[in-house]
Design goal:
The chain is α+β, with helices and mostly antiparallel strands. It has four helices and three strands. The relative contact order is 0.16. It has helices at 3-9, 14-60, 64-81, 128-131, and strands spanning 90-96, 108-117, 134-143.
């Protein structure tokens, strides 16, 4: 048998090469997925906490100025704690039933907090970071105290 045929049929060491090649091909996307899911989970927990705690402090405040002050403090604290991008966080508030002053006695305050999470390692070239960002939103409701404005 010619020498090149023996060499071509020799599979010594090919398992290690296949393992390394397949490992890299599978491992790199898996690690990227874990990093991406971690970033999304962190932001989702922050958005949910912001909505819940903001609705709670507004619903338990004594009057409108203290509700606004406490709500702003809660949002700033959560943005800092969960390392959210402050310019991407959007907050909306409305009361149920509609048509009444918000917040007011007996109403239900509904707070919606939303943000966008950029995928890791995506450059800000040609707006790719915005195009590949993932929107997250959380909504929380809190009944306003019957003692609103009496203190």
């Amino acid at each position: 048998m010619p020498r090149w045929r023996v060499w071509a049929n020799d599979e010594d060491g090919s398992a290690a090469v296949e393992f390394i090649t397949a490992g890299v091909i599978l491992l790199v996307p898996f690690i990227y997925l874990i990093i991406t899911l971690g970033a999304m989970q962190q932001s989702l927990l922050g958005v949910e906490a912001a909505a819940r705690h903001t609705a709670r402090v507004i619903g338990q405040a004594e009057d409108a100025p203290s509700a606004a002050t406490r709500g702003d403090a809660v949002i700033a604290s959560i943005i800092d704690e969960y390392q959210l991008e402050a310019e991407r966080v959007q907050i909306a508030m409305h009361c149920v039933p509609s048509g009444i002053e918000c917040p007011s006695t007996g109403a239900t305050v509904v707070v919606t907090v939303s943000t966008r999470v950029s995928l890791p390692f995506v450059p800000a070239v040609f707006g790719l970071d915005e195009a590949t960002s993932i929107p997250l939103e959380a909504v929380a409701a809190q009944k306003v105290s019957r003692l609103w404005g009496t203190q």
